[in-house]
């Protein structure tokens, strides 16, 4: 397991890990399909997007390793048909929810592997559940349901 330094700075969980996480490129622009995305979703200003092997980070804010891991899960989900995946993701709310539960579940697993502080783990799970249950994804489920689904994904997929 990689060594990690964990802190909360300005309300943001910071995990500094010695190893490189993925081969994904990170660019500080909107994704090529942003116009279509914005018709279906209401992403916040700090939203991050995966399109193929690239993470689009238009805000330019520093990405934590767990968020990079989350986006790498979406890259794997997209496979060789990024546009087809996005069409289904945007039009099929159940598919979107399943894809996000998987990505957030893997993100939580990642955090659990690198952080032993139970308060930070709980805080990370709360932030993920807030995001998953938000308007950004179309209010697909309640906060409690989101937290439960992320935690249960972790129980059955470790």
Keywords for this structure?
three-stranded mixed beta sheet; two-stranded antiparallel sheet; 158 residues
List the helices and strands and how they pair.
Layout: E1 4-9, E2 12-17, E3 25-27, H1 34-40, E4 49-51, E5 54-56, H2 65-78, H3 82-91, H4 93-114, H5 118-132, H6 143-156
Parallel strand pairs: 3-5
Antiparallel strand pairs: 1-2, 4-5
Helix pairs in contact: 2-4, 3-4, 4-5, 4-6, 5-6
Q: What would your notes on this structure say?
A:
This protein has one domain (20-156). Helices cover 52% and strands 13% of the residues. The protein has six helices and five strands. It has helices at residues 34-40, 65-78, 82-91, 93-114, 118-132, 143-156, and strands at residues 4-9, 12-17, 25-27, 49-51, 54-56. It has a three-stranded mixed sheet, with helices on one face. A hairpin with a 2-residue loop joins strand 1 (4-9) and strand 2 (12-17). The chain is globular. The model is unreliable at 1-5 and 15-20 (pLDDT under 50).
Encode the helix/strand succession as letters.
EEEHEEHHHHH
State the helical fraction: 40-55%
Radius of gyration: 15 Å
- Main sheet attributes: strand count, strand direction, barrel closure: 3 strands, mixed
Would you kindly provide a brief summary of this structure?
The protein has 158 residues and is α+β, with helices and mostly antiparallel strands. The chain contains six helices and five strands.
């Amino acid at each position: 397991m990689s060594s990690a330094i964990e802190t909360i700075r300005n309300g943001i969980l910071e995990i500094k890990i010695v190893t490189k996480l993925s081969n994904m490129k990170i660019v500080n622009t909107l994704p090529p399909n942003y116009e279509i995305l914005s018709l279906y979703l209401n992403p916040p200003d700090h939203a991050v997007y995966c399109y193929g092997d690239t993470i689009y980070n238009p805000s330019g804010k520093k990405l934590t390793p767990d968020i990079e891991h989350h986006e790498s899960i979406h890259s794997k989900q997209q496979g060789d048909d990024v546009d087809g995946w996005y069409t289904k993701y945007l039009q099929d709310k159940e598919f979107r929810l399943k894809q996000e539960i998987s990505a957030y579940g893997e993100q939580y697993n990642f955090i659990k592997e690198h952080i032993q502080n139970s308060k930070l783990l709980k805080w990370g799970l709360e932030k993920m559940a807030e995001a998953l249950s938000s308007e950004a994804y179309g209010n697909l489920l309640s906060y409690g349901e989101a937290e439960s689904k992320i935690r249960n994904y972790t129980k059955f997929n470790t």
